[in-house]
């Protein structure tokens, strides 16, 4: 028997019994009447990502249906659609006027019952519009539904030209209808040449349609501009940003990821509206951005840092991808008093002259003793110069000093570990990618981190584990630690030695080991019985097999056991 547990479902674990009952309509009526609308609404909000359960809820009674439908239909295109899910367009078609339905029928989109009216006005519940997923799903639906010209055979496929024409026709009818009838649009995701939205917007000669974006809270703009038409695509992003900045100053989350080729530069006239969109917001809390502007142009760089500084009082999360100008960024960060998280993804390679310039400016920053206030520093960056990465991260750590509570680093160096030792004695959460050299250097430092609660160690290069090294690791773990997540390929004996020499009373243990069996589980059971603190065991790996007897014993002692993938019970 195979059992699969998904960690994403842990959050709704407490509602498991409710889910079982809601799937049985007849036995739920008595249960349903005991819950107030307020309680139901809170439960349904909690289950917003569990579409199956929400769909079951709408079948209970009218009251449940009226509360669950708005949540179920709030963001239907958030994820890619497959199979029968694309039939959602039949429901949206039923909401169109008779005239628009007839237009579709005249163009070969076969409608089963044009006069049929829906039970709800589904478009008004739309809170999120994800352009690319909408466009792909619509094209698939048209390909499945639209008849070949002069054909009555449903098996006849549309030619590419017919598919494009009929998809654009449906887009012009359904897209604007969804957007204009949405009463509370909060999320907009425009990505990867989603020309469908631009086509919709171009249908309107005035700015009326942009009023629907006045309540947006989250905006995502994403594209990889490597193609020959990259200039026109940059222009479309600029046009959209320019319009949005006129009608919305209340965005709280902005994500702009425009990846451009090495030899391409987005012109200032296209950069400015996009960066102005950031600048003009009143209360921006989350900003994720890729360095798409021309860093050799002082005007473009000034626009970005001016926009960033304008949000210094509200910004709490800043994520930067392919970033280069650290020496210009850090002085601005000293003004961001409420910034809690700073994240870097993939540095852009610099030439030697640029790095030397940065080092010079970094030295001036260090001597000025300016402070930044972040609590979390996350670095997924990598490059060919580990010393430069160490320099950048080290400067940030020194400027943040005791404010830092969480560090997440890829490609850690021994020099950086020494900096952590000197400046991060109060650290509580630590995520490190590590190898033999850095592990050996890290263990003495770990032993004196007396406030650490969460430790994640990822084996970057295969570590040569010995029993002596396992003992050292165990004895280095501070008593304060309650969450341990490691990817080391331990044997059952090594795991037993780790537990026998560890004085910490872990509450959560996460292991990533292929081929785990009862010997591993028995070692964990012995630890859980000895300390009576372990309440969660999560695991990942291939070819994992447990006997029912030992697994049942583990479940009695450890309340929560979850896996990332399937495992076998025999």
From TrEMBL:
Protein name: F-box domain-containing protein
InterPro entries in the record: LRR_dom_sf
Protein origin, superkingdom: Eukaryota
């Amino acid at each position: 028997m195979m059992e699969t547990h998904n960690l994403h479902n842990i959050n709704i674990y407490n509602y498991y019994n409710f889910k079982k009952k809601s799937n049985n309509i007849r036995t739920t009526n008595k249960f349903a009447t005991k819950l107030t609308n307020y309680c139901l609404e809170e439960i349904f909000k909690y289950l917003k990502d569990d579409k199956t359960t929400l769909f079951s809820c709408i079948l209970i009674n009218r009251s449940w249906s009226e509360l669950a439908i708005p949540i179920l239909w709030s963001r239907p295109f958030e994820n890619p659609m497959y199979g029968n899910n694309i039939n959602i367009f039949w429901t949206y078609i039923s909401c169109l006027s008779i005239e628009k339905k007839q237009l579709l029928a005249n163009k070969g989109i076969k409608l089963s019952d044009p006069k049929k009216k829906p039970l709800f006005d589904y478009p008004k519940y739309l809170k999120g519009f994800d352009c690319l997923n909408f466009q792909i799903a619509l094209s698939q639906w048209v390909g499945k539904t639209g008849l070949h010209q002069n054909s009555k055979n449903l098996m006849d496929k549309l030619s590419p030209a017919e598919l494009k024409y009929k998809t654009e026709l449906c887009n012009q009818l359904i897209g604007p209808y969804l957007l204009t009838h949405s009463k509370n649009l909060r999320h907009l995701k425009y990505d990867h040449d989603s020309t469908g939205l631009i086509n919709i917007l171009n249908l309107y000669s005035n700015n009326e349609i942009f009023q629907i974006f006045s309540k947006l809270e989250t905006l995502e703009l994403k594209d990889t501009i490597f193609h020959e038409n990259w200039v026109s695509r940059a222009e479309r992003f600029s046009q959209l940003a320019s319009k949005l900045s006129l009608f919305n100053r209340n965005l709280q989350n902005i994500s702009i990821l425009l990846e451009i080729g090495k030899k391409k530069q987005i012109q200032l006239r296209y950069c400015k509206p996009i960066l102005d969109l950031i600048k003009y917001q009143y209360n921006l809390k989350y900003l994720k951005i890729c360095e798409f502007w021309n860093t050799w142009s002082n005007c473009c760089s000034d626009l970005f840092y001016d926009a960033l500084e304008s949000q210094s009082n509200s910004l709490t999360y800043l994520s930067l991808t392919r970033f280069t100008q650290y020496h210009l960024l850090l002085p601005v960060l000293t003004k961001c008093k409420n910034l809690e998280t700073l994240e870097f993804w993939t540095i852009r390679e610099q030439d030697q002259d640029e790095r030397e310039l940065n080092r010079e400016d970094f030295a001036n920053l260090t001597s000025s003793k300016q402070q930044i206030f972040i609590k979390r520093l996350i670095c997924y960056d990598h490059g060919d110069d580990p010393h430069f990465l160490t320099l950048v991260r080290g400067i940030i750590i020194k400027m943040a000093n005791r404010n830092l509570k969480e560090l997440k680093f890829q490609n850690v160096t021994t020099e950086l570990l020494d900096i952590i030792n000197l400046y991060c004695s109060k650290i509580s959460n630590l995520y490190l990618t590590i190898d033999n050299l850095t592990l050996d250097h890290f263990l003495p430092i770990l032993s004196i981190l007396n406030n650490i609660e969460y430790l994640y160690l990822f084996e970057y290069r295969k570590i040569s584990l010995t029993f002596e090294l396992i003992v050292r690791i165990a004895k280095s773990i501070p008593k304060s630690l309650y969450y341990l997540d490691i990817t080391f390929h331990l044997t059952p004996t090594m795991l037993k030695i780790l537990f026998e020499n560890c004085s910490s009373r872990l509450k959560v243990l996460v292991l990533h080991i292929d081929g785990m069996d009862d010997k591993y589980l028995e070692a964990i059971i012995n630890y859980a019985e000895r300390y009576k603190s372990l309440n969660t065991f999560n695991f990942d790996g291939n070819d994992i097999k447990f006997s029912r007897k030992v697994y049942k014993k583990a479940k009695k002692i450890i309340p929560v056991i979850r896996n990332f993938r399937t495992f076998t019970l025999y």
